[in-house]
Amino acid sequence: MAAAVLLAAGCLAAIHRDVAPRGEWPTYGNDPGGTRYSALTQIDRANVAQLRVAWTYRTGETGGALPYGHIAFEATPLMVDGTLFLSTPYDRVIALDPETGVERWTYDPKVDRARRFAIVTSRGVSTWLDPAAAPGSPCRRRIFVATIDARLIALDAAGGMPCAGFGRDGQVDLSAGIKVIDASCCYQVTSPPAVVHGLVVVGSSIGDNRSVEMERGVVRAFDARTGALRWSWDPIPTRESDPARATWAGDSWRHTGAANVWSVMSVDEARGLLFLPTSSPSPDFYGGERLGANRYANSVVALRAESGEVVWDFQVVHHDLWDYDVPAQPTLVSVTRAGHTVPAVVVATKMGHLFVLHRETGVPLFPVEERPVPRSTVHGEEAWPTQPFPVRPRPLVPSRLTADDAWGATPEEREACRARIARLRSEGIFTPPSVRGTIAFPGNLGGMNWSSGAFEPERHLFVTNVNNLPMEVHLVPRDRYREAEQTAKEGPRQFRAEVSPQSETPYGMSRQVLRSPAGLPCNPPPWGSLIAVDLGDGTIRWNVPLGTTADLLPNAGSVIRGTPNLGGPIITAGGLVFIASAMDNFLRAFDGDTGAELWKGRLPAGGQAMPATYRLRPDGKQFVVIAAGGHGKLGTKLGDSLVAFALP
Length: 648
Fold this sequence. Notes:
mainly beta; 5-stranded mixed beta sheet; 4-stranded antiparallel beta sheet; 4 helices; 5% helix; 31% strand; disordered N terminus
């Protein structure tokens, strides 16, 4: 396990062979394994400073204040068959000319905007080319969108019309067969489906902190041509013969919900494997009704794509009490060990832990240790006594915050933070929630989140953006919950605590970023960084702050480097890392070798999305395109723009 892991670049080159010559970006992560790597080289270190806005497209769907939840424009467009395809937060699908941004068609699924949603967002669409369809026939190339009101829709890529032979009039009702607890809210889909071997596979986004009994996080595969259900897999084990069943105490497996897959799945087409990042079981912060390790939840699970059968699973958090979902798309790479190519999967987590596993078995390729963690002080709760820690790479964010670590922009701010930290339970990562109040560090927005990372084969790098933010979490006794709800509605919106009922348990929950009176985090900056990890030996190659507070705090007197961020990076063979994500509304280019910032381009709104890059013709321009529509929860400027950059 201690031997150096060297990259097998040749294997990855084969993955990109079909993509690079045409310069397409055909899936969310460019290839089905989500490496987010492009072989295009027209834009490089020498000329990236010349990038300019080539065109801007306005979707007309500008976010505003919502009665519930928040809105975010998180989509990454696809470029395939000479057309750019994207989705809006309310799941309108738009087809554009990739070189001019001129609209070719739009499709509106007519999501009810008066309906209550936990989140209004779509991270993108998926596509499938029917091998049995004749060229030019309707729906030979299909665009799939899974909606926030739980529908799976198949569209003809040529004109945007629903594919009549798919489901009923081109769509499948994803709530069918699911015991939806609240028909008006919170069973949604926010990420693009996976497509493998003629199947389109969907997970779900669930408001999982409402109560104990929630919707089940069932993953389902539908025939890409007909919409017929082919298989389903429940991450909460129902069969007595399933070895995971013993890790759910008593009959908790009957009543608990969630453990769903809300993020992006990855596909190994050659091996017929599907990789699922699963979330916490319900509710997030009190597990007294689901004692045990809760296997399959908070895991990466490899399924047989043809059948939905579990091949292996690896749990990154046992008995989650912190909302530490596996948020990131698993990244499929290849490494070399003892002269042999080893297929691997990289699992990025909210804890800042990066796990590198054998893709066929789930066995760690770097050592992982089970270490003791703090015990719960809450009656009825039994926190799991140990948690898995990767020895390499080391954690990418700090994991302990004490009163001595308190930070403030002024001495008064620092003292206020010091006093606040001293009142709370803070014994390092995995300190369980408490009635007294606990510091979760990193918090549920910490580490790598859904932004995931990008893999560069030549330099052996996994590049990812991280958040370094502490959360203050309180379990609220049931008789005080209404008071906590009322308190959460008072004061400036950006400083309000988030509360959840956790019904059917003795406690509700309240959480908020641990801030100073002025609203800045109580831990030292940077609060967001971009980090490159060498997957050859598990070391950190470079680590730089991401974004600045120059726009956020124009009168602060000094600029703080490194802001909270949501989105993700891509890497090109031109030696560049492109990422927006930070709160200051720029798309940036970094040197992949050193982390030096080489260029930044102003965006009209927050760029909380992953960019894409493409070239339509061999003699045409390379474009870098990103959704700039902001993020309601992060608090960046909202908008409705898709912005493309190119060389003059």
